[in-house]
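Last lecture ended with a question: if I hand you only a sequence, what can you say about the shape of the protein? Today we answer it with a concrete record. The protein is YCII-related domain-containing protein. Below, first the input exactly as provided, then the predicted structure, then a couple of comments.
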Amino acid sequence: MPFLIETFDKPDLQALRLEVRQQHLDYLNANVDILLACGAKLSDNGETASGGIYLLDLDSREEAERFIKGDPFHQAALFDEVKIVRWRQAYLNRKNTL
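The predicted structure:
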């Protein structure tokens, strides 16, 4: 069952985000088998990230919680808020998957 995780960065921590970014990317690469999609939420000009969206193929909310707690961004206390919800995939890559 897919889960959606949405993260919201604490204000004024762009430097921390950039400092930890490579560790975060390494973590994503190490977990690529459960990633359906993920990416940063950006400002309108595309220059500043303020959080992220993760779509994960996991069996339980507990697994989703473990995943996000293992993310170097979470461990560096970048996030102000994290939302985890079950998600129903309907379209992926412009194709109906129902």
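Comments.
1. Strands lie at 2-9, 35-42, 49-57, 79-86, 91-92, 95-96.
2. The chain has a mean pLDDT of 95.
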